[in-house]
């Protein structure tokens, strides 16, 4: 009898506990409370690590790092960008948003993050860099759910990428089947005496529907004569710049200029 009574009390205690637990899940009208669904996920997520690209259009003292603005559906993110050389003090680089795409064309064709407007990117400028020195970069996105870092080691030599030459002009040389191409070095480059640039010219034409292209070997002059052209044919001319020793990457090609050789 005593044992039965005890079991009975335990049973009701258990029922009581289960009902208490369930009432936490069941709302007053008995329907199951909705658990936040997938559509609001981004609202609760920490940021993803930023997809950072760095390049130096003004070797050796300055470099730029850029990453896409995340989609508007995510929580607001603040970025902390720091860089330091081994054993050196940590320097801040202050990121700012740019609406105009700061990157030359190949990067601009990179897939952006879905939902972000094309060209909305963050940019930060790394200054006072030293030659042949390894740096550590840390770009961390922080929102109220957490943070994520992009960590990268680089030397400025690895990431050299000049801007394209400017003021490119193409002139027909009268009476000759030649074009004179001239340009000015990219003004963003830091020092043309200590760190000279070299250039390449490429030209395209179309012959009865077949495209042709010639790219000349690199040279230091800022003009070039293109010989052996055909009358009444149109040529599309572009110029790029690169560091004289071949560090890093060439610039993007300048915007094409089309010139037609007159009839002889
Ligand atoms: C962006 O969206 C397209 C289709 O809308 C999808 O195919 C692609 O995988 C998405 N890219 C990323 C990075 O989410
Ligand atoms: C990167 O920077 C963030 C924010 O300053 C910091 O919390 C994190 O520890 C750093 N990561 C490394 C590996 O230094
Ligand atoms: C390019 O041309 C403009 C207009 O003629 C001139 O003001 C500018 O100085 C030139 N830039 C360079 C780098 O020569």
CATH topology of the largest domain: Immunoglobulin-like
Please give the alpha-carbon distance between the first and last residues: 123 Å
Sheet bearing the most strands, described? 4 strands, antiparallel
Strand-residue fraction?
Answer: 35-45%
Number of domains: 2
CATH class of the largest domain: Mainly Beta
| Overall strand count | 15
* Small molecules (ligands, ions, cofactors) in the structure: 2-acetamido-2-deoxy-beta-D-glucopyranose
Q: What is the architecture of the largest domain at the second tier of CATH?
A: Sandwich
Detail the poorly predicted runs. 14-39, 102-116
Secondary-structure element order, as H and E? HHEEEEEHEEEEEEEEEE
Query: What is the overall number of helices?
Result: 3
Look at the helices and sheets and give the structural class: mainly beta
The global form is elongated
Q: What's the Cα radius of gyration?
A: 31 Å
Q: What is the CATH homology-level superfamily of the largest domain?
A: Immunoglobulins
Keywords: Glycoprotein, Repeat, Signal
GO molecular function, one term: cytokine receptor activity
Pfam families: fn3, FN3_IL27B_N
Protein name: Fibronectin type-III domain-containing protein
């Amino acid at each position: 009898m005593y044992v039965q009574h005890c079991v009975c009390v335990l049973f009701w205690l258990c029922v009581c506990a289960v009902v208490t637990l369930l009432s936490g899940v069941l709302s007053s009208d008995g329907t199951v409370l909705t658990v936040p669904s997938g559509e609001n996920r981004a609202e609760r997520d920490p940021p993803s690590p930023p997809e950072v690209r760095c390049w130096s259009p003004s070797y050796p003292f300055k470099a730029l790092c850029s990453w896409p603005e995340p989609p508007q559906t995510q929580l607001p993110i603040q970025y902390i960008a720091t860089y330091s050389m081994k054993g050196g003090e940590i320097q801040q680089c202050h990121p700012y948003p740019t609406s105009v795409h700061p990157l030359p064309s190949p990067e601009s064709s990179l897939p952006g993050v879905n939902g972000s407007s094309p060209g909305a990117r963050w940019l930060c400028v790394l200054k006072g860099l030293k030659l042949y020195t390894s740096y550590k970069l840390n770009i961390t996105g922080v929102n109220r759910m957490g943070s994520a870092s992009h960590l990268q080691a680089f030397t400025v030599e690895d990431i050299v990428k000049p801007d394209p030459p400017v003021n490119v002009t193409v002139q027909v040389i009268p009476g000759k089947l030649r074009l004179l191409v001239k340009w000015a070095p990219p003004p963003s480059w830091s020092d043309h005496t200590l760190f000279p640039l070299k250039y390449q010219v490429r030209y395209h034409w179309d012959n009865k529907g077949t495209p042709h292209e010639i790219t000349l070997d690199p040279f230091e002059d800022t003009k070039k004569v293109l010989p052996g052209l055909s009358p009444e044919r149109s040529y599309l001319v572009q110029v790029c710049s690169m560091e004289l020793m071949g560090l890093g990457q060439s610039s993007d090609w300048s915007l094409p200029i089309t010139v037609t050789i007159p009839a002889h």
